[in-house]
Amino acid sequence: MLQTRLILTLLALSGAALAQGAGPAIRVPGGSYSQITPQALQAQLRGKDFILINVHVPYEGELLDTDLFVPFDQVQGSARLPRAKTTKLVIYCRSGRMSALAARALVRQGYTNVRELRGGMDAWRAAGFGLKVAAARSAAPAGGRP
């Protein structure tokens, strides 16, 4: 009976963690970052308290509330990133490959609150959420906005 109750409690807790959409910490040199599901990100956009960064190149679209555009290979040392290393950052690209590289670079720079959209814009679309695509756009300008 006690064992059954323990198993049910663990299942309930793991379900709550999955509902929040945050995966386990991904350890990398310098610290760790986590992934967030499209569903969890959509819910968190309602009370947005983070900077949303598109790191995909070339430009293939963006989530509606995107704040910055920093190519994944220019994240290291970018002056466009916030100075405060505890700033909440959520990064994404098209499929997740570039954002995983960017997440590693951000952690190496000392950022401590980095989340990556699991599966990128592909997963975002597959979850039924829309993207914005700027007309006649080929690359992010120096200012970071399309």
Automatic annotation (TrEMBL):
Superkingdom assignment: Bacteria
Pfam families documented for this protein: Rhodanese (PF00581)
Coiled coil residues, start to end: none
Residues of the signal peptide: 1-19
Limits of the Rhodanese domain: 68-133
Keywords of the record: Signal
The keyword Flavoprotein appears for this protein: no
Listed SUPFAM superfamilies: Rhodanese/Cell cycle control phosphatase (SSF52821)
UniProt cross-references to InterPro entries, sorted A to Z: GlpE_sulfurtransferase, Rhodanese-like_dom, Rhodanese-like_dom_sf
Protein name: Rhodanese-like domain-containing protein
Native species: Deinococcus rufus
